[in-house]
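Section 5.1 Outputs to date
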Amino acid sequence: MISCVDFMAELGNYLEDDVAAEVRQQLDNHLSHCQTCQVIVDSTRKTLQIITDSGSFDLPEAAMRPITQKIMSKIRSDQD
């Protein structure tokens, strides 16, 4: 089974459904047993929905990618 650290490293890809089927199965399995990661996924999804629904700003993909990578890098470094 994967750890919470491993799950957090894949969180962005998981939410964007950008993981291989085998990895997705491992992540889903982890979520089925880890309430902490369930809360993080749920909170992140809700936050993204609020931001998306607000229509307050739209960023081009080229601008979003470095921001997403920086956030994920920070999440990964905080898990170490």
